[in-house]
Amino acid sequence: MDPIAEALDLYEAGNVNEAVNHIMEHANEISEQDQFSVAELLQQWGFLDEARRLFEELHRTYPGDHQIKFQLADIYIDLEMDEVALELVESIEPDDPEYINALMILADIYQSQGLNEVAEQKLMQAKELQPDNYLIDFGIAELAFHNGEFQKAVEHYEKIESHSGEFPFVNIHERLAESYSSIGKWEEALSYYEELELKEPDPLFKYGYTAYQLKRYDIAIKVWNDLLDLDPDYTSVYPYLAKAYEEEGIMDAASDVLKKGLKKDEHNIELYITIAKNELKQDHIEEAKRYLKEAIALDPGHEKAIVELYNIYETHGDWEDARKLIEELKKFEPYPEILDWKAGQVYNELEEYDLAKEAYTKAHTTFHQEADFLREYGYFLVEEGQIEQAISLLEKYLAQNPEDRETAEFINRMKGE
Predict the structure, then answer these.
(1) What angle do CA 362, 366, 370 make, to 5 degrees?
(2) What is the pLDDT of residues 190-205, one digit of tens each?
(3) Where are the TPR repeats (predicted)?
């Protein structure tokens, strides 16, 4: 039996290292014609250094063979030997029949170096020379896709859609689905996603998200459940799946999903907040407060959780609880500036006006352009008798909300107009 066949038998039996060692030990017995195939085999198996040595030997024997150059350059790129790869490929002249392939490989090299503009120049140069070469369109599409230029990616992927079966490592329809989704063309994206048999978590998440945007909650629920069957630790999907259930009015399922997610990631504050909102929708006020308090315990500076809990206290007039929340959280420096604004509200409701004024004054530094704050602080200052300052704030508010006739008339009355 020849060395190649013996090596293949070893490889298929799972003895990969033995297969490679067998090939390298008998390299001198392999004909030059078969050495190319052996080197390709080693490259496919991931033994790049061994493949490189064989291709370099072949290159020394056949320096004008561009196929050897291309294979060798590909290995150099994988081994992060970009400069050597560049030197090898740039030796191919523009009048050479293989120049187009050389340009495409150069584009790969420059892309791997992060020089995306240079990579695109090489591809466009190739496109000018061979406008109908679908492999060039594929290269342009892939570069655009990885650069986040999804509209351009769509244009070029569509040109090669009829050749989609010729790219074993890239699913063109999946690329089109993701590209359309990324530019907000949800209908087009969904039509492609529905054709695919997805087996990886990230594409499944994007498929579900696309369906969710189209309010196809039934599809989103099925796809995201498939994702969780595949990977229960994909914690970012739990809040989305819960929202899809909520949109369908299946509140119990939403709660169950969120609680399962929390067991997988006990430090995911967004999950605590989402559960709290879900509990509120079911009028489970105490449960909602409990989850928000747990979120704040994990991160005392998490503004979203703080505001959600404060809003519950405000809605139910629990001003003493709101006061305790704010005063406790302000012990943590630096605290979110929103606490100064909320402190002003709380002290005002509790008729502790000096503390309210102090809090509002401090909050003004941060929220001096926030319309709601300007209105609230302005009316507070009216009650404090500081009319001139109040008018100034309310006029700034009115500049942002000229349709508020009530406030406009109030200002005119204060001015005596």
Answers:
(1) 115
(2) 999 999 999 999 999 9
(3) 201-234, 269-302, 371-404
